[in-house]
Design goal:
- This protein is 46% helix and 13% strand.
- It is of the alpha/beta class.
- The protein folds into 2 domains: 64 residues, Multidrug-efflux Transporter Regulator, Chain: A, Domain 2, CATH 1.10.1660.10; 217 residues, Isochorismatase-like (Rossmann fold, 3-Layer(aba) Sandwich).
- The strands form 2 sheets. A 6-stranded parallel sheet has the order 5-4-3-6-7-8, sandwiched between helices.
- Strand 6, helix 9 and strand 7 form a beta-alpha-beta unit.
- The radius of gyration is 26 Å and the shape is elongated.
């Protein structure tokens, strides 16, 4: 039998943590000496090692309680789930890091550049995901018409240092939108991934949404604020639904709004025409071809797109 101090040294857990695990039943109540000092057996130490192992893997104490002494198949399933959770967290941290870098870069742009007529432009790319391709949950061949123009637009934007913000459907069972549409872009599936032909670059941003309007239940507004954006050029899928709703919301939030004429489309020509008319007649949004849009906002001179840490 060993003391709590020795148990702490062996396991790397603090005495306070060991006492806490005991108080919540994660570790059985320790034996006591006549003087009242806790004493731990080899079985206790083995259990503490297991707790430390799962804690290092970022499981909650409740999850750890269910995993200790669980069958191997249960543990393996939990490890697979945890790997997915940790990957998502890492992506979130990398995203936050890129936002901070870009925000710092944006605030360091020279005043002279702004005097030349440059706008703080961002490209919004909506729902460019695999479920729209053949075999997908909402497959439509019309999406193919916008991929090549968007490749041109995105390449020019990256060359000019213009941020590209992908806003992607990401659904879970029970999302309100799934009551209207068949299951699509389900979180973690191939269908929810961005189409390879217009895949994001290292400095692009990805925001997940579960409703038509890209501002609702997302961090889009915070991202635009951090980047100092005042102008949005919209591209992507469903002119009459997600593109229109997000663009109109941007208008009400005070942004200068433009539409990529050949960079948006939807399921039928009549629906596309309706969406363009809705945004044109009611809001008078500017419209540009993908090949000409960047020049219209930032001119001919390339913008230094370096951010801290690039060199």
């Amino acid at each position: 039998m060993i003391t709590i101090k020795k148990a702490s040294e062996i396991t790397g857990l603090t005495p306070k943590s060991i006492r806490h695990y005991e108080s919540i039943g994660l570790l059985q109540t320790a034996a006591r000496t006549q003087s009242g000092y806790r004493q731990y057996s080899e079985d206790d130490i083995d259990r503490l090692h297991q707790i430390r192992y799962y804690r290092d893997l970022k499981f909650t104490l409740e999850e750890i309680a269910s995993l200790i002494n669980a069958p191997q198949q249960v543990v393996e399933a939990a490890l697979i789930r945890q790997l997915r959770v940790l990957s998502e967290r890492l992506n979130e941290y990398h995203y936050a890091q890129s936002i901070i870098f870009s925000a710092l870069h944006n605030r360091n742009k020279s005043h002279a550049q702004k005097l030349k007529g440059h706008h703080n432009l961002a490209i919004i790319a909506i729902d460019l995901q695999n479920d729209m391709l053949e075999g997908g949950a909402l497959a439509c061949k019309r999406i193919l018409t916008i991929l090549t123009p968007l490749q041109t637009l995105f390449a020019q934007a990256r060359s000019a240092g213009v941020p590209i913000i992908y806003i992607c459907d990401c659904h879970r069972k029970g999302d309100p939108e799934l009551l209207i549409w068949d299951d699509h872009m389900i979180e973690g599936t191939y269908g929810a991934q961005i189409i390879d032909a217009v895949a994001p670059g290292e400095k692009d941003f990805i925001i997940k949404k579960n409703l038509f309007n890209g501002f609702v239940n997302t961090n889009l507004q915070n991202t635009l604020d951090l980047l100092g954006i005042d102008t949005l050029l919209f591209s992507g899928w469903r002119t009459d639904v997600c593109v229109a709703q997000t663009a109109i919301e941007a208008f009400y939030r005070g942004y200068r709004v433009a539409i990529a004429r050949d960079g948006v489309n939807t399921t039928t020509q009549s629906e596309h025409d309706f969406g363009m008319a809705l945004m044109g007649v009611n809001y008078d949004f500017e419209v540009y071809d993908c090949a000409d849009a960047i020049k219209a906002f930032v001119g001919d001179e390339p913008v230094d797109s370096a951010i801290p840490g690039d060199e």
